[in-house]
Amino acid sequence: MSKKKKLGIVADSTCDMDPEYLQKYDIDTVALKVIFGDEIRNQNKDITNKEYYTRLREGEFPTTGAPSPKAFKEVLDKAFEKYEEVLFFSIGNKLSATYSVASMVKQQFYDDKLTIIDTNTLSITMSLLILPAARMIEKGATKEEILEFVNKMIPHTQVFGGSPTLKYLHKGGRLSRGSYILGTALHFQPLVSVGDGQVISPGRVRKERDLFKHMRKITRKIAENHMTDTVIFGHCDNEQKVEVFAKYLKSLPNAPKEVLIWEIGPVIGTHLGPDTIGVVWVGEFKEEWLKIKRNLRFWKREKEEDEE
């Protein structure tokens, strides 16, 4: 039996890290559930993004669920066969019960061997923390050095994007019926960000071209205000449209060295819907860049009632 390595990484599947990078850095994921009626599927295990978005576009609408303690233990047991200690990166505690389940499993089975990190965010934004942590491990960094870096970066992770419809936020229980009816009648398309660990809207637009104007402006600001050299553009089955902004960012002075395009997976995609686009970075974000008042909160932790 080969000798265990000192430190490894596990994340929940909502990190939406590209499979190539998961494999390259030997990062295992704990699958969140995607539920179509009586059919339970597991992200990154038995449903592909292609199948998922095809079913969504054909009119099916799933719900989502946190992993079971058993699912956590199966993945972590395998990780501890390879590593003496494990860092687990979780979707934000305010967004899902995943962190709570992980904490319970840690207390029952792993104690100090397992360190749980509340990323206070979701989806590819989590990978802005996971990817450099994996690279630090490769270079021999200690757990303490990695945690110091991650905790320093968490408050500066930024998200900006937009969805072409309010439908999926409403169906997923993240937007009240009243706000949905009013917004749909006025043809609003929500802008999406994350603040204080919750998905919120810094405003809304009525036309796709208005979203693209905001995306272009944010892309310019990222070139001037990034703290790390990785920026990721995300999309929900809509890669061609984000390719334009990724190419634009690369052309700017002071552009980050690494500009990636990754697809947002089924769990987060359930609440955003097809054709959503966005960008994530570590750095600064100011509301005045958009000149729109931030006034809506879309994502609520499980079992929390909608606000009217």
Structural features, described:
This protein has 308 residues and is an alpha/beta fold. It contains eleven helices and 15 strands. It has helices spanning 19-24, 49-57, 69-82, 98-110, 124-138, 143-153, 167-171, 177-185, 208-225, 239-251, 266-272; strands at residues 5-12, 28-30, 33-36, 39-42, 63-65, 83-90, 114-118, 157-162, 189-195, 198-201, 204-205, 230-235, 258-263, 277-282, 296-297. The strands form three sheets. Strands 8, 9, 10, 11, 12, 13, 14 and 15 form an eight-stranded mixed β-sheet that branches. A four-stranded parallel β-sheet has the order 2-1-6-7, sandwiched between helices. Helix 5 (124-138) packs antiparallel against helix 6 and helix 9 (208-225) packs parallel to helix 10 (239-251). The radius of gyration is 19 Å and the shape is globular. The termini are far apart. Mean pLDDT is 89; it is low at 292-308.
Roughly how many Å apart are the termini?
A: 58 Å
What's the CATH first level of the largest domain? Alpha Beta
- Count of helical stretches: 11
Output the structural class: alpha/beta
Major beta-sheet overview: 8 strands, mixed
- The structural domain count equals 2
Number of strand elements: 15
What would the CATH topology of the largest domain be? Rossmann fold
Order of helices and strands: EHEEEHEHEHEHHEHHEEEHEHEHEE
Average pLDDT works out at 89
Share of helix, binned = 25-40%
CATH architecture classification name of the largest domain: 3-Layer(aba) Sandwich
| Global outline | globular
